[in-house]
Amino acid sequence: MVSQPTTISRAAEIVRISRIFDFLLLVPILLVIIGTYHLSMILTVGDWDFWLDWKDRQWWPIVTPLMGITFPAAIQYGLWKHLRLPIGATVCTVCLLLGMAITRWFAYHLWTNYPINLVLPATLIPGALLLDFVLLTSRSFFVTAILGGMLFGAVFYPANWAIFAPFHQPVEYNSSLMTLADVSGYSYIRPGVPEYLRIIERGVLRTYDTYATPLSAFCAAVLAVPLYGLWSYIGKLFSTTRFIDKF
């Protein structure tokens, strides 16, 4: 007959080993999130959120939050549905920002001697916090898709304005009026196709003059709703366990 202290100590040892295994499993999961989410942003957003002079007032506030809500929606569904953790979107965006900061600091600032301001990453964390907050308070993916998705897309530009506003100051450079971000693009020539010579903001929203940015934020807010619904469904497919009967 096994004594009670021995049984308790053995159970405590099992719990300790289980927690160690969970922490060991958590590290590769976070690395996978960093790698896949970062790769997705590179392939979809690309230069719009990479170079400083591409962070304009028209397409950058639309493209970046729309592509940025994909992984947070899928991971948020899995963590909330199975673990009741309302931190999926925040964890995902923090992993993305960490991966982008490390990559751009070592690959561009230290290796190719680019100023870190020229490749400074934008942040999606404020929108992710609101997304998780709406899910926590409403406990409904439908409400989160409508209200949280709209907030995620709408607050992107205001949340990053404090970071990038100094580089939008107008300056006169070679008898031309441009911003400090444009001057950086001309001063540090990039390899490949000379996209720094293109007018980034050319498009129909320029018709509204100073109202281009609010319209961009509104478009991002509206379009983020169906994207959240789509990617939360993808998260549901990948986080659902299925069993196959033996024949």
From TrEMBL:
Indicate whether Oxidoreductase appears among the record's keywords: yes
What GO molecular-function term can you cite, just one? monooxygenase activity
Looking at the UniProt entry, the stretches that span the membrane are: 20-39, 59-80, 87-108, 114-134, 141-164, 215-234
Q: What is its EC number?
A: 1.14.18.3
Q: Keywords in alphabetical order, please.
A: Membrane, Monooxygenase, Oxidoreductase, Transmembrane, Transmembrane helix
Q: Does the keyword Amino-acid biosynthesis apply?
A: no
**What general EC class does the enzyme of this chain belong to?**
oxidoreductase
| Record Pfam families | AMO
What name does this protein carry?
A: Particulate methane monooxygenase beta subunit
Q: Which organism is it from?
A: Methyloglobulus morosus KoM1
